[in-house]
Amino acid sequence: MPDAPSRPSAEDELDVLRRWAAGPGPRALRASIVLQAALGRHNSEIARRLGVSRQTVATWRQRYAAEGTAGLAGRPQSGRPGVVDEGDVVTETLLAPPDRRSSRSVGRRLGCSHTAVAAARRRWNLGQADRGPLPPLTPALADGEVWVVGVHHGTGPALVLLALRPHVPGQPAGPAVRPPTDALAAVAAAFTHALDSHEPAVAAGPADPAPHPPGRPAAEPDQAVSVFLAAARRAHPRAALHLVVLHGPAATGLDELCRRARVTLHQPPERTGPVSFLRAVLALDASRHPSSSARVLLDLAADLDGPAPVRWIREPLPAAPGESPPGGAGPLRAAAPAGSGGANQIDLGSFNECVVIETVRLAGSITRGEIADRTRLTQQSVSRIARSLLDRGLLVEERRQHSTVGKPRGLVRLRDDAAHALGIHIDPEVLTAVLVDLSGRIVARRVEKITPEPRPGAVVAQIAALGEAVLANTGQAVRENSFLGLGVVVPGPVDTVSGTVLDPPLMGVLKDVPLRSLLEQRFSCPILVEKDSTAAAVGERWIGRESRARDFVYLYLGTGVGAGLILNGDIYRGLTANAGEFGQLCAVTLGRVEASGRPEVLPECNPARHVLTRADGHRAGAAGGVPKDPPTVREAARAIGRGALALIDLLDVGLVVVGGPFCTGPAADIYLTEIERAVNDFPTARRLRRVHVERSVSIHEAAAVGAASTLFHAAFTPRLRRHP
């Protein structure tokens, strides 16, 4: 005989049960149990139909019989909560060090059970070996790489725009880098404030999954949303875009707006709040893509802190690996990196190869025995490495030296045409492109006046065309497998991670332009974007060989005066690769600050304005030591010398190199004289050292040659730790 069913007492309760059974969440299962029982079915049959245990069926039938629909609600349980915001789980996992990412460790920090953490991570595909992580949206996303490319918020719903690109074969499924914690916190705080300010009724819990909640009228279509989607599609024409309604009712006609913009509309996960979801997808993006730097997140936080409506659209994404540029594969592809022997000594072998290459480069030509003496490697190791480099064409053997004892000794040197790189220097007035071989010799060069067209696209097109023209004119001089890539240098500041020019002086047309992403559409090779002063220092180290084999400061006299720092045999870039803002240091040293307290922009640090007079003395009429007219070269050199003095006292180096396009002619001698006097007469430790001030080995094309040399430096400089 079947168990006696507990039937609903009223038709309205049946309606409630049917609505719950059709909806999401745990109440759907409980309502389905009661409705099945109302049809007279046994507990065992209900359990089989719904895929649960008979005890679960009996429990919820008994609760409904005793309490009605109220008995189907969840009850407080002892211990840790079983439900947790999945966005918090994802963010906490990605921000944690690798040894603290287990479900138990994350659960302890969030105050929830490890089973809830594990379930959330499964839904987001975190830690899956066969596929990358994805947010569990409705409808579901296809497999791919997720990027956050837009956020919109005003009087209507809060929206986030995602771009989905195919997963790169061979890329690790797990996070590659830890996201920038401070930048993520800034975005979360700004978004929370924006929701509270623009929509005071926002709840702190997870977003309502229903697109049109009952009893709440849907918002009218917002013209601002249409403009937002159209602008995002123009910025990301090739990406699959997905719009997620984070909070609030979806606007009437939003489906149609998305269809016109070729955007797919989604609802966020049920167990995730609006702020935690945005923070989670940003952390996921930043952990998978190095170009999603702190600067991208801080720009978003600044926009969210601004007035409503918020319309943030990310710059174009970098070209996907293996993605062909429009119109062809580009002029040259980069040479594949050569492999190293040794199953368990790949890193060590690669480092030792770089040590040998560096030793040969500094010496010019050298014997294997001398390499062993200088590097402290064994003769056997040097012979093996030299033989490998000779076979791969990086070294060439010269005629043998005759010796009085034993067989003649063979000299080896770098093969000049074993590697080439293209360098482009972007100046407010001219563009300079050079093709440089491994010895630092310029194989081809081309200089053009920069276009007066005020559109970023026109400037970028000219840059690309100039580089392509130089490569095309080399003929057969450059083999495809010897080309390392393209280095581009601009006045700072620059975001080298994403390759974006931020706010270069006198070049407003390139402000916030994603230069590397745009050039990747024309060149199918690695592209580095660097500050001009930093690149010039790298070029000086590479071309100067043994004379520049020690630490030094490079003062670059270009549109402004910048500093490049070679410390411990490597370029020092700093936290954001913007070290060397010499003008700021010079102003602070001279006590020249604006009323706001910000260091003054010194006319002395703009060599283009310096005036070379016959006596080159102080001009009458200058009050308070600050020239009212353009400064003479000597006045400027003395000011620059004071800044150089501060660097010498700070870094305690013994060499200052002065170069750049304005370190030429009679002015160069004045700069060198005044700087040398300042760094030797006034330092605190002047009794312990003599600082040498020398002219650069490369003058006019220093930055362009340095741009190309950054590729050589990245490929061949020995480092125990490789920087991205």
Automatic annotation (TrEMBL):
InterPro entries membership: ATPase_NBD, Homeodomain-like_sf, HTH_MarR-typ, InsJ-like_HTH, ROK, WH-like_DNA-bd_sf, WH_DNA-bd_sf
Domain of life: Bacteria
Residues covered by the HTH marR-type domain: 361-400
Location of region: Disordered: 201-220, 316-339
Residues annotated as domain Insertion element IS150 protein InsJ-like helix-turn-helix: 30-81
Family recorded in the similarity comment: Belongs to the ROK (NagC/XylR) family.
Name used for this protein in its record: ROK family protein
Lineage of origin: Bacteria, Bacillati, Actinomycetota, Actinomycetes, Kitasatosporales
